[in-house]
Amino acid sequence: MARRLWDYLELILDAAGRLDPTWPFATDLITKVQPTGRFLGIGVEERRVIAEGELRAALRVPDPSRVEGKRVLVIDDAFSEGFTLREMARALRQAGAAEVAGLVFVRRKSA
Question: What pTM did the predictor assign?
Fold first, then answer.
């Protein structure tokens, strides 16, 4: 439900769609149904607790038939420890995805 001032992923998907509109991008395969704690400015252990608790409880795959038996590539803008990507992969696999991989644009420096 939080909106960023600048959505890098939307810009990249728009550009990719202009290059080849047949690419099967889907931005609604997984959703976050409630707000969760922010990861910014807190330690690794606190981020892990939020990811495995609040975030895990908030992630939903609205239509599992769209991922069932499919290979899914999750695109994220930043990677710290991988907690968010891991929880998204977990939800997609539980919904029936055969394989989930991640593509991340930047690796954040560890604190």
Answer: 0.82
